[in-house]
């Protein structure tokens, strides 16, 4: 129906209701009186005119009534009351008397009929979409605002495949009540019983404020039912219009392992980055590319994406250019290898960066065990090249991204990252540049992470391969780690080794079991096989050694380590030693250097 036809229809219906209310109200009060009197004609005309005026003012002709709610009902009440009150004033002015009883009956009839005419559209729509035929029976966990929103949209959506049949909520005051005709029938402990009794085919977790710990616990209960479990979209996504309430998403492993978000000191980070020149090495990698995304949010004057792989640098360049078109930011790409010192000096002198985030590194433990020379060249010599180039270019701040595997390292990768930390700390003591290292554990979804491999193995029908049943790791999401790297860089005084709070360690076998459940399978469908610990791997990772611990947090989720000092001259001698060491002896030499103190390092050199 066109807007003009719709307006004419509503005005016609309202006019009939007004006339009916006036004459029936008068007849109910005085059934023996004349049907038409001059006062009644004036009253009806006055009410008709005033009603249309107030209906227009309160937009009763422009509302979409199939979605009518309490707000629309209150608008009807106010508009009708004001129109009847206007007629009462008109009667006093013309006849010095107000027919209050007649007006009261007219008011009640008027509100009742106008409301009925409008809400009949909503009733028709609800009845039309109420049918649950061919829809999956859904259980909604959470009978608060989020759950109510989901239930309403599912009931009113013709396209939805789900029909809500029950709520679960831990609030005992809601137990036994109904919301939109849907009963609240238990707490989370009752989920398995409710699923069985109500023949539930789909579960929706609709508690936006749910903590990650509680979500994990809730998901474990739901996974026991073997029923598909999803989460409602975030409130931010719904409000921004990116998704609708009914667009449920699957539970991700990040939801179960992540922690509560930390409020960043955006002002301090902004002072460090806004309007500045920032270089990110390894910008095409998992961490480096996310650092680029996070840095771009703070509107630097120039963002330099430096990396060795042209395809990955091109990919992040295109993403940043398309995503941040509204920012006055120059984006520069530099295809360069951190192992090439002259190239690093050239790039840093050309762009004169204020801040450098050094994410370029070889990180795969088994691969580096087989290729120790490459680990030394990229992680140690590459870091030294970048550090010296930053010093020459008078960079204000240099942040190296390290790893928990640098603590008491047993692998070549961890040992080379520990030596790289030594280089950074040594240079800080003799340079105007603030050099810091930020150490954290595994990141979910990064290249080489167990998550993508497990997903591929599940897609292939299994089995999932885990090295050892007791293998434990710390995990953090890539965006979370990158944001905290920016925060650590903003609060650095120089020379620190910052350690990110990785939360509780997670058993890899538990991670595999969660992924199996999240994929809709159980362990009888996808088996888990243990393959044995690989060379260089630890069963348990550490974030700080015993002599490195500062217990207090200097910022939420950020600790400051106290690593033993080493002189730059000693480190440089050791690096020269590594450069001439044979492949057969290199692994042992790297581990010796990373684990010894300076006096032992000097003894090591003297012994040679």
Question: Could you characterize what this model shows?
Answer:
By secondary structure, this protein is of the alpha/beta class. The protein has three domains: 3-128, no CATH class; 136-251, Rossmann fold; 266-442 and 475-502 and 543-602, 3-Layer(aba) Sandwich (Rossmann fold). Helices cover 50% and strands 15% of the residues. Strands 10-9-8-11-12-13-18-22-21 form a nine-stranded mixed sheet, sandwiched between helices. A five-stranded mixed sheet has the order 2-1-5-6-7, with helices on both faces. Helix 5 (145-156) links the parallel strand 1 (136-141) and strand 2. Helix 2 (38-57) packs antiparallel against helix 3 (70-95), helix 11 crosses helix 18 (478-491) and helix 13 (341-351) runs parallel beside helix 15. The protein is elongated, with a radius of gyration of 35 Å.
Q: Which properties best describe this structure?
A:
single chain, 608 residues, alpha/beta, 3 domains, 15% strand, elongated, membrane, transmembrane, transmembrane helix
- Most strands sheet: 9 strands, mixed
The assigned CATH architecture of the largest domain is: 3-Layer(aba) Sandwich
Rounded mean pLDDT is 82
- CATH topology name of the largest domain: Rossmann fold
Number of helices: 22
DSSP strand (E) fraction?
Answer: 5-15%
Q: Which secondary-structure class do the elements indicate?
A: alpha/beta
**Low-confidence stretches at least 5 residues in length (pLDDT < 50)?**
none
Shape from CA axes? elongated
Strand order of the largest sheet: 10-9-8-11-12-13-18-22-21
Counting DSSP E segments of at least 2 residues, the number of strands comes to 22
Name of the CATH superfamily of the largest domain: NAD(P)-binding Rossmann-like Domain
What is the CA-based Rg, rounded?
35 Å
- Whole-Å distance between the termini? 93 Å
At the first level of CATH, the class of the largest domain is: Alpha Beta
Helix content: 40-55%
């Amino acid at each position: 129906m066109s807007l003009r036809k719709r307006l004419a229809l509503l005005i016609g219906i309202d006019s009939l209701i007004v006339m009916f209310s006036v004459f029936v109200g008068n007849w109910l009060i005085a059934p023996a009186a004349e049907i038409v009197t001059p006062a009644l004609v004036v009253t009806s005309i006055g009410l008709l005119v005033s009603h249309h005026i107030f209906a227009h003012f309160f937009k009763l002709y422009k509302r979409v009534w199939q979605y009518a709610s309490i707000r629309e009902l209150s608008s009807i009440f106010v508009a009708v009351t004001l129109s009847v009150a206007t007629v009462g004033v008109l009667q006093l002015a013309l006849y010095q008397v107000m027919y209050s009883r007649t007006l009261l009956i007219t008011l009640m009839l008027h509100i009742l009929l106008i409301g009925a005419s409008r809400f009949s559209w909503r009733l028709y729509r609800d009845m039309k979409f109420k049918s649950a035929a061919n829809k999956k029976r859904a259980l909604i966990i959470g009978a608060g605002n989020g759950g109510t929103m989901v239930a309403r949209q599912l009931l009113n959506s013709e396209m939805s495949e789900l029909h809500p049949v029950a709520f679960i909520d831990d609030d005992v005051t809601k137990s036994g009540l109904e919301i939109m005709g849907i009963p609240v029938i238990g707490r989370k402990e009752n989920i398995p019983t409710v699923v069985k009794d109500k023949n539930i085919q789909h579960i929706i977790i609709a508690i936006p404020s749910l903590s990650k710990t509680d979500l994990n616990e809730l998901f474990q209960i739901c996974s026991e039912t073997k029923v598909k479990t999803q989460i409602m979209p975030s409130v931010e996504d719904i409000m921004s219009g990116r998704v609708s309430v009914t667009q449920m998403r699957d539970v991700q492993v990040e939801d179960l392992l992540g922690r509560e978000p930390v409020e960043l000191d955006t002002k301090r980070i902004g002072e460090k980055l806004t309007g500045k020149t920032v270089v990110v090495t390894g910008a095409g990698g998992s961490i480096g590319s996310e650092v680029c995304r996070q840095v771009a949010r703070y509107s630097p004057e120039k963002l330099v994406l430096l990396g060795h792989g042209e395809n990955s640098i091109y990919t992040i360049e295109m993403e940043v250019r398309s995503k941040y078109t509204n920012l006055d930011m120059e984006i520069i790409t530099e295809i360069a290898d951190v192992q090439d010192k002259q190239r690093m000096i050239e790039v840093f002198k050309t762009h004169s960066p204020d801040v450098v985030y050094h994410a370029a590194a070889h990180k795969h433990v088994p691969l580096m065990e087989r290729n120790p020379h490459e680990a030394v060249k990229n992680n140690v010599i590459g870091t030294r090249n970048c550090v010296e180039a930053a010093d020459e270019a008078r960079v204000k701040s240099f942040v190296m991204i390290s790893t928990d595997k640098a603590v008491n390292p047993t692998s070549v990768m961890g040992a080379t990252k520990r030596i790289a930390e030594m280089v950074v700390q040594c240079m800080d003591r003799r340079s105007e540049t603030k050099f810091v290292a930020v150490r954290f554990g595994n990141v979910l979804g990064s290249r080489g992470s167990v998550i993508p491999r497990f997903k591929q193995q599940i897609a292939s029908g299994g089995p999932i391969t885990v090295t050892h049943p007791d293998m434990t790791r710390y995990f953090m999401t890539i965006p979370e780690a990158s944001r905290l790297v920016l925060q650590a860089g903003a609060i650095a005084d120089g020379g620190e080794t910052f350690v990110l709070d990785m939360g509780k360690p997670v058993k890899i076998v538990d991670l595999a079991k969660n992924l199996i459940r999240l994929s809709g399978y159980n362990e009888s469908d996808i088996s888990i096989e243990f393959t044995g610990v690989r060379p260089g791997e630890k069963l348990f990772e550490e974030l700080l050694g015993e002599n490195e611990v500062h217990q207090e947090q200097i910022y939420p989720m950020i600790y400051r380590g106290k690593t033993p000092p080493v002189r730059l001259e000693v480190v440089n001698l050791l690096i020269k030693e590594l450069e001439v060491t044979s492949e057969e002896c290199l692994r042992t030499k790297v581990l010796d250097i990373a684990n010894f103190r300076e006096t032992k390092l000097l003894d090591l050199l003297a012994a040679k």
